[in-house]
Design a protein that fits this description.
It is built from 14 helices and twelve strands. The chain has helices at residues 39-54, 73-86, 90-102, 125-128, 130-142, 146-169, 198-219, 223-244, 257-266, 272-289, 298-310, 314-322, 329-334, 368-376, and strands spanning 32-36, 56-57, 59-60, 378-380, 389-392, 404-411, 414-424, 427-434, 440-443, 456-458, 461-465, 468-469. The protein is globular and about 65 Å long.
């Protein structure tokens, strides 16, 4: 087997009990915790946390071994939402953002790695997007506009570079290097991996950057810029659909179909007139063709669970994280060749050669954000920062494989927490929520068939009975 390449004999002249392993990383405090009544999801969360912690060493690295352990921007772009949820990343990321700004060219370009080593200028837009994405993550999660104000001129310069590039080349020829990196081969160690056009992932990244820049400009009073970014956003969304939509296949290209459609949905680039057709194409590929398994690389893997949740198919997103066969996050852990304790660089690492094949890569860890927002059910309203306005709404509560979830986030306002459970006989739900004194919370109660006739109690006292509030 290919995995034999990694077998090495370890000979020690020391007696037992003399070696101590010390975990070394930058000091970032744990802020979030989440646990589920499901072994597979807990194991994936364990691997995400270890993979993240191991790759925090003065700067966010992609892997913690070999010559590639660099500040690769793509990995940070995909995991900043997960990282800021699990850890206090404020000071750590401010330092990294300063490093990015220090490497920026006069026309706005940044590089694929920071400090600049591998890759080069300009960064693939799906890598360079780490710059505005991290600033936005700090803003939304911690509620501080300091990073926006400090880096805004540089961010505006960066955004201008890509808008000029897009205007010059058009979306179909948009600059790209890596795109939806490392989609899974059809079988472990085999061929048949398929990714969408790199230009598609680049334009998607520009759309997300414009979304963030519009909100951040508004937050610091740059209203004229906010309007400029908003108008550009509307235009680029239209360009995305016009350039990449194929009416014959009702998709955004034939290669890397899952990622292409997921990104179109997340970018809000799918017109209502074809939305149902596009969603049906995605579900046909995901469910009928692939038996509810991923075919995505790192970018599609970051967004697919959120996209499925937004179209009302959180049940399929749950199945993706429950899968233990190839390709899946669970396969990394439960395969019978090389069970993992961190995240792999490839979906099929034990069956590939020893080259680009890390066993501790964080880039597939972005799904950890959905563990909080989807499976646990803690999110913010669209106009909220630092959990000022909280939504408690688990994405799926009816699957018997997930009868319980519990988690909390220590925010600057205080502890935000949710614990929910479902009992089948008699059918009942139990919610326990924690809301900081300076925040407001909305609790969504699940109704499996009908809300008629349900009883809702708070602290043991009825507050909803006989289809009306109890005064």
């Amino acid at each position: 087997a290919a995995s034999d390449v990694y077998k090495r004999e370890v000979v020690s002249t020391q007696s037992t009990g003399t070696l101590t392993a010390v975990h070394v990383r930058s000091s970032v405090e744990r802020l979030g915790s989440v646990t589920f009544a499901n072994e597979t999801i807990n194991a994936i969360q364990h691997n995400i946390l270890w993979g993240q912690e191991d790759n925090l060493m003065s700067l966010p690295t992609d892997c913690d071994q070999r010559d590639e352990r660099k500040g690769w921007m793509g990995d940070s772009a995909l995991t900043s939402d997960e990282a800021t949820r699990n850890f206090d990343m404020n000071a750590f990321y401010i330092n990294f953002l300063q490093n990015i700004q220090d490497t920026q060219t006069v026309d706005g370009q940044i590089a694929d790695t920071t400090p600049v080593t591998f890759g080069g200028y300009p960064a693939d837009p799906a890598w360079g997007t780490a710059y505005p994405t991290i600033v936005y993550s700090l803003f939304r999660e911690y509620g501080d506009t300091y990073a926006i104000s400090r880096f805004y001129p540089s961010l505006k310069l960066y955004m201008g570079f890509w808008l000029r590039a897009l205007n010059s080349t058009g979306p179909k020829n948009m600059f790209a290097k890596y795109g939806d990196w490392v989609p899974p081969p059809s079988t472990p160690g085999g061929g048949g991996a398929s990714a969408p056009s790199g230009s598609l992932t680049s334009v998607f990244s520009v759309i997300k950057d414009l979304e963030h820049m519009q909100e951040m400009a508004e937050a610091i009073g740059q209203s004229v810029d906010a309007v400029t970014f908003r108008d550009a956003l509307v235009s680029v969304r239209t360009q995305f659909h016009t350039a990449f939509y194929d009416p014959a296949t009702k998709s955004y290209g034939t290669n890397g179909l899952q990622t292409a459609i997921v990104l179109a949905l997340i970018a809000q680039a799918v017109p209502d007139s074809v939305r149902d057709d596009v969603i049906n194409t995605l579900l046909t590929d995901l469910v009928n063709k692939r038996n509810t398994h991923l075919s995505t690389g790192i970018i599609g893997a970051r967004w697919i669970c959120q996209a499925l949740t937004e179209i009302g198919r959180a049940d399929l997103a749950l199945q993706l994280v429950l899968n233990r066969d190839y390709p899946s996050w669970g396969y990394m852990i439960y395969n019978n060749v090389e069970p993992a304790t961190t995240l792999w660089e490839l979906w099929d690492s034990p069956f590939e050669g020893p080259g680009m094949n890390s066993r501790n890569h964080i880039m597939f860890g972005g799904v950890g954000e959905w563990f909080y927002s989807g499976l646990l059910g803690i999110t913010q309203t669209s106009d909220s920062i630092s959990y000022q306005s909280i939504i408690f709404k688990p994405a799926i509560t009816t699957d018997p494989r997930l009868p319980f979830a519990s988690g909390s986030i220590n925010t600057p306002r205080g502890k935000v927490g949710l614990q929910w459970s479902r009992s089948a006989s008699p059918l009942s739900y139990n919610y326990a929520v924690s809301v900081p004194v300076s925040s407001v919370g909305q609790v969504f109660i699940p109704c499996e068939s009908s809300c008629k006739g349900i009883l809702i109690t708070e602290g043991g006292n009825p507050i909803w009975k006989n289809n009306q509030f109890v005064s």
